[in-house]
Amino acid sequence: MLSQLPPHLWRGRSAAGWTALVLGFVVGLPLALAVGLALLGVGVAAAVVALVVGFIALVAEWAWYAIERGREQPYPFPVPAPRQRRSRRTALSGLYLSAAPRLTGGVARVTGWLLAPLALLVGVVGIVVPRWRARPYLAVFTLPALLRKTVGLGRKRGLLRDGHDAVLLGYDDLLEQQFPLLHDFLRWWDDPGAGDEYTPSPGLVDVPAGLLGLELGPVPDPLGRTGLAAGGMRRRSVHTLRDLLLSQREIDDLCDPDLDERIDTAVIRLVERVHEGVRHWIVQFPSTKSWHPRPGVAPNDLTADLVIGAEYEATITRAALATMREAGIAPGEPVVLAGFSLGGMVAAQVAAHAHAAGFSVTHLVVAGSPLGRLPIPSGIRTLAIEHVLDLVPRIDGRENPVRLDLDGSDVLVTVKAGPALTPGFRLGALHEAIAYADTAGLIEKEPPGASVAALLAELRPFFGDGQTVHDRAALRAGDLPARPAVPFSLHSTLEQGITEEALRQTLRRLAGVYAVDVYQSRGGLATTILWSADLLVRTLDAWLVATRRAAIYRGLLSLLGRRRAVGIHLRLQARATPGLIWEATLQRMPDGRWRETIDVTVDDRARAADIVRLFPDGVKTRVVLHRPDAFEPVLDAAGI
Fold first, then answer.
1. How confident is the model at residue 5 (pLDDT cuts 50, 70, 90)?
2. How far, rounded to the nearest angstrom, does the alpha carbon of residue 211 sit from its chain's CA centroid?
3. Rg (CA), the chain
4. Taking the C-alpha atoms of 616, 601, 451 and 3 in order, what is their torsion angle to the nearest 10 degrees?
5. How far is residue 355's CA from residue 151's CA, in Å, rounded to a whole number?
6. Please, which residues have CB within 8 angstroms of residue 390's CB and are 6 or more apart in sequence?
7. Residues 6+ apart with CB under 8 A from 587
8. What letter does residue 24 receive in the DSSP assignment?
9. Where are the beta strands (DSSP E) in 334-380?
10. Pairing of strands 513-519, 467-476
11. What is the Cα–Cα distance from 304 to 314, expressed in whole angstroms?
């Protein structure tokens, strides 16, 4: 197994911890203030020097272009001289794309050096002089008040507006309206008697033809459309805590149009199960889809993050409560609210309104969510999972309270763990649903405390066979547009586009593959190192052969060489064996070896004979370690 810090319970600070904290304030704060001011001076001087040097280099570069302007450049030449306006614009675009990330990072550092000493000084003075804690200092330097001011200023300028009503639809109904071909394919995929080859249904609504007013021929290569594989892979069951986090990653990816042509919405998933004659419910909420400051049609965005942090009710929260009412959750039926990142914040806000809305919420399960400032009603037993280097659970500046007494009405158990970072991973990789799923699997295997084991036992009636999964789409009313994941791009997408297409076409050329989606999962902060591929295939048998799988890994790693990928994630479902989803995640470890994690998800449609034939050793998670050279030679195929 990949070495990591073991999960442990947060039990509050000890006497030694409080002593260290006081010493840190007495000694560390003045020292940090002095160092901050010194760094500020150094940073300003360095910025001035960098600007002067950059300006001189820019002038020199354009002077060289002017000198070379009349000369004939032999073929091949790296960059044409900017003789015309268009070529000059291209050259300046390249300069912007290379300079913008550095400029953004520099501004962030200078801002931090400037504001940190000021905030520290006001905080220290406020300890001694109580009146300095009053407005406007308290309003500026407490997080909820700061967020309320931010939201208020944003609304005056057309930003961060979240007062819209929620529009709710079944996810399949929304697909039928906006992606009829995808909806038609999914109906064929789920119908075992529909034949082995897919042909679009006659009279299928042609959205492009209707929008353009043109007579168009048949859709070329309908199985080459993006979104088919991810749509067909939708989960029908959630049997474990690890499954819950994998399901979270799925609903986040289903509603992210930046991945491909997926619908722009927030997916709320409800899992219904009858246990001992009583319906039990799991309700999952999506994480942040867009970091754009203007609200879009999908209500799970930056606006929702800030509005909930400012202690206002967000549109996604109203949509969640309305979805639960439409699903027919009756008073007295136990409900688990679950979410990752923003989804956990929404779950906490829904929990605060649940009793008044007539719902009996018994448990709250969150991962990577800041709960320290969110009020959780008594009687709701909470399990929070945090990665020790994940910044998001700490963004509210407050630790979760310690409530370990399972016999009391207030229970909040926080499990902290530190997954190891594989080569190439950034800290942002710790804030991903799939990383939290790995941690959840460890927690289930070896609970770090009696309170954790007790909570896991209380959750078992919600997991298991006989589940029904309902996916609902939530949108903001008001004809708002779709928003991209970020307001602007700081890097060229050309290389990424070529790589994605090469991966899709390569996998589609394998025998027995119906449809392929290739993307970088946005289950949290975006990273550029773990590529995901969803495949719909005829049978799973060929993919279970280790030698064939190694050849596929080698080929994909070759294609991903220029993207500095350190891992791939394959997810497959076969038409011949409904109810089975096979997943494999391959990641490089710090010692150079490769770690392959294989998961098999089984739902109620699976046939017992298929499970025994394909997985005679069972369907539990398997971890296989490979030598560093197991998938060599890795060719520079992306450079061809």
1. low
2. 32
3. 27
4. 70
5. 28
6. 368, 427, 430, 431
7. 2, 422, 530, 566, 567, 594, 595, 597
8. I
9. 334-340, 360-367
10. unpaired
11. 6
**Roughly how many angstroms between the first and final C-alpha of the chain, as a whole number?**
36
The per-residue pLDDT for range 229-247, each reduced to its tens digit, is 888 888 888 989 998 998 9
Mean pLDDT within 600-610: 88
Neighbours of 32 (CB within 10 A): 14
Percentage of the chain beyond pLDDT 70 is 76
Longest dimension (CA), the chain: 86
Determine the pLDDT at residue 124.
58
SS3 263: coil
Share of the chain residues as helix, strand and coil, in percent rounded to the nearest 5? 45, 20, 35
Half-sphere exposure of residue 310: CA atoms within 13 angstroms, side-chain side = 24
Interatomic CA distance for residues 276 and 257, integer angstroms:
41
pLDDT digits (tens, 9 = 90+) for 393-446: 877 777 788 787 777 778 899 998 876 565 555 555 678 887 888 889 889 988
Q: 210: which 2 tokens? A: 């209707």
Q: How far apart are CA 415 and CA 239, in angstroms?
A: 20
Q: Rounded to 5 degrees, what angle do the CA atoms 484, 485, 489 make?
A: 80
Which residue's structure tokens are 């790995």?
Answer: 438
At a CB cut-off of 8 Å and minimum separation 6, what does 341 contact?
A: 287, 288, 367, 368, 369, 392, 431, 524
Burial 295-332 (b: 16+ CB within 10 A, else e): bbbbbbbbbbbbbbbbebbbbbbbbbbbbbeeeebeee
Amino acid identity, residue 120?
L
- Ordered strands of the 567-574 beta sheet: 513-519, 530-537, 567-574, 580-588, 594-602, 622-626
pLDDT in tens, 361-396: 999 999 999 888 888 888 899 999 988 777 788 777
Most confident listed range (143-147, 364-368, 592-596, 635-639)? 364-368
Task: Please tell me whether residue 176 adopts helix, strand or coil conformation.
Answer: helix
- The string of DSSP codes covering 609-629 is HHHHHH-TT-SS-EEEEE-TT
Whether the CB-CB separation of 390 and 531 falls below 8 Å is answered with no
Q: pLDDT (tens digit, 9 = 90+) per residue, 83-139?
A: 555 555 545 544 544 454 455 545 645 655 565 556 556 555 655 555 444 333 444
- The answer to whether the CB of 386 falls within 8 A of the CB of 416 is yes
3-22 average pLDDT score: 75
Beta-strand pair 411-418/5-9: antiparallel
How does the average pLDDT of the chain come out, rounded? 79
* Bridge partners, 571 (sequence order): 534, 583
- Residues 79, 73: contact at Cβ < 8 Å? no
Pairing status of strand 278-285 against strand 266-275: antiparallel
- Distance between CA atoms of 615 and 72, rounded to whole angstroms? 66
Cα 518 from Cα 539, distance rounded (Å): 20
CA angle 52, 55, 57 (to 5 degrees): 110
d(CA 198, CA 467): 29
Cα–Cα distance measured from residue 440 to residue 434, given in angstroms and rounded to the nearest whole number: 10
